[in-house]
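tool_call: predict_structure(chain=1)
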Amino acid sequence: MLSGSNTRERPRIKTDSAEKGALCAADGLRLHWPEYLMEAGESGIYLFSTCMVATLLWHPASPIGRHLTSDAARRMLMGLAMGATMIAIVLTPWGKQSGAHFNPAVTFTFYRLRKVAMWDAVFYCAAQFCGAVAGVALASILLKGAPANKAVHYAATIPGIYGDSIAFVAELAISFVLMSAILFASNSEALAPYTHHFAAILVAVYIAFESPISGMSTNPARTFGPALFAGYWHVLWIYFIGPLLGMLAAAEVFLLARDGNGPYCAKLHHHNDKRCIFRHSGGPAAQPPRQKESNGR
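tool_result:
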């Protein structure tokens, strides 16, 4: 989910609406629409990659899939591919500017931590869902409907061998660990430059080893895109509620561990010169070293 900036940190110009959280919907669209489109694009890329790799590994006609004799091997390759995709997205100019959430549960958690304004959170989440749908649609078009094959099923997240309840608990648990890693790593001077690597490693491990239990989502948009095309709705609640509760719980643990001090920012990648629309707080201990900021307006 680096290279440090060689420029001294510039002072952030404060604006009343950004600091007080009074950004209205119209202002959000007018001022922050590039970040909203970036989030849609990142979510689309992630779901496009998900469907493409799943089709390549599981479709009966795939030249690669036919040589893989076990689902375990397929899951490991899928995990590596999606972890690499996540790192690539975070390191793109889009990811550096928007914060590379591409996950409504992540965005809402940062909103709870007062790093994201309300309307930014609303439009981020809407963009992430739209991007996920577009990513699955594009993959289906380019692969001429191959992701619809029952062996691929649009890479839908489906409860595994232990049923719905265990899948819900698993989604809650893995989302808790993922968000905890993001928060604690991104607010450590030593670990901040590697935040996206920690997140990507967890995603890869989850896909390889946890997906037989819950299908491995941690992301409502990641589940919604394939579900829309596969018509698989009856357990959608697992992937909307589980990740959100798990990440919110991680936020509470983070605040408790830091005596109520929130995170510095809502970006996974801090070391860049892209503008930041998020609220910043905290002293030098919370701030990644040598970070450039720009006015969120």
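agent: Residues 1-20, 283-297 have pLDDT under 50 and may be disordered. Proceeding to next step.
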